[in-house]
Design a protein that fits this description.
The structure is a homodimer of 233-residue chains. With 233 residues, the first copy, chain A, is an alpha+beta fold. The first copy, chain A, has 2 domains: 137 residues, Nucleoside Triphosphate Pyrophosphohydrolase, CATH 3.90.79.10; 65 residues, Orthogonal Bundle (Arc Repressor Mutant, subunit A), CATH 1.10.10. At the A-B interface, strand 1, strand 5 and strand 6 of A face strand 1, strand 5 and strand 6 of B. The structure holds a DNA duplex (27 and 27 nucleotides).
DNA sequence: TCAAAAGTGTTGAACATACACCCATGT
DNA sequence: ACATGGGTGTATGTTCAACACTTTTGA
């Protein structure tokens, strides 16, 4: 490397979102090493010298969730590099957004004394570095992408009912959606969900058809948005 | 900086888009220094030791376009850091997307032998580094954002007619839009455009009302999309 | 038999497209 | 006068929110 190129540390930080107990939650790590030792932060770490950025994010995701065969959506969110954001010196952080189904309990990573799911609304005040900003950007991105992509299924298990999918929207957006109109909209949008084998009664009532995400892309996804409150029960 | 943190060079690269001669174009720089000396590349450069990422992008934008009082939209696009993408060593590049009105001719920057606007469709094959990928991502982002934001006006001058705004959509998307329905949609969406003083006949025909972008945000932008071909003339 | 959730039908309102038509200017 | 583009009115079709109603299970 030429000597006249200014250098910086490069890290990845992850906002891992899940829907759990009717709440949108993110994974927080209690830092086991300085700086900010003992405080909460987003999971993350430095990119290895010959590691791709996405590979680093995937590695951290696997380490923090204990999930080797993770089925989770992962996308780059944004990059944060304001001078002074890390007391160790100039550190550029490439933030990634992950959407995961309701996982078992995460195992503590190597440099973390503890890891736990926290409601995103209660989390901002707890986080070190500029992680409150990163979290806010991530939640905004996730909320927006539910509108114009079939991404909500990333919060669900391999197969899911339409009601479970609707529940994701309701929790992430904090709105009520009409079960009947939602059902129609989702099932009539080609490629959004495809019927899977079997039904389930895990939600109570009449057995519900199971679905999985389609292999291909959705041509023009639904655009859900707020909508409904009332019902006729 | 601690010794165990792997370091990398941090650059910003810009995709500066404009609508010019009925074509979506981007600014290309002929490299004046190695690597890839003499080839075309996106404008960009290394981030200074105590410079914010956005400040570096703004600085490059001003340098390359010669525009000190630039009125252009600038947003972070994505970050590219695959090992080996730069022969000088590990270089992370934070790409920015800029949308600019049809500017005069750009002035050559300090490390550039030449700069010129090129049609984005003819550009991919010319660019060095991984810049074809960055350009493709930028164009995709720009096309998508026209759908759900009032960003098209960033391609127009301070004040513009509805026809000029429509022209932006037509060029960027490569579609025909019905002038009358477009006019209604844009003017009836509160906050999308606001009437400015005066009219112009620069497009010929009846004088057209001038508009400028509103100060606030648009609550729920239009969602334009393909649409119309026929007419009754 | 009843509660609870799945899923279908139907209706009126909102919106979008297509196009007829009038307006105001330059030549 | 007439060509050119700006802008309004309006009919028809599509989509969407609201909600009545039937289906299928567990308790």
């Amino acid at each position: 490397m030429k000597a006249d190129i200014p250098l910086a540390g490069v890290a990845v930080d992850l906002v891992i979102l899940t829907v759990r107990e009717d709440t949108l939650m993110a994974l927080a790590i209690r830092r086991g090493i300085p700086p900010f030792k003992g405080q909460w932060a987003l999971p993350g770490g430095f990119v290895l010298p010959d590691e791709d950025l996405t590979a680093a994010a995937r590695r951290e995701l696997a380490e923090e969730t204990g999930l080797a065969d993770f089925r989770a959506h992962l996308e780059q969110l944004a990059t944060y590099g304001t001078p002074g954001r890390d007391p160790r010196g100039r550190v550029i952080s490439v933030a990634y957004l992950a959407l995961a189904p309701d996982l078992p309990l995460p195992s503590a990573g190597s440099d973390a004394a503890a890891a736990q799911w926290m409601p995103v609304d209660a989390m901002a005040g707890e986080l070190a570095f500029d992680h409150p900003q990163i979290l806010a950007d991530a939640v905004e991105r996730a909320r927006a992408k539910l509108e114009y992509t079939p991404l909500a299924a990333a919060f669900c298990a391999e197969t899911f009912t339409i009601a479970e999918l609707r529940h994701v929207y309701q929790v992430v957006w904090g709105v009520e959606l009409d079960p009947r109109n939602f059902h129609r909209k989702v099932t009539s949008t080609r490629g959004f969900v495809i019927p899977a084998d079997g039904t389930t009664t895990r939600d109570g009532g009449r057995p519900a058809q199971l679905f999985s995400v389609g292999p291909g892309d959705v041509l023009r996804p639904p655009l859900m948005r707020p909508g409904t409150v009332g019902d006729d029960r």
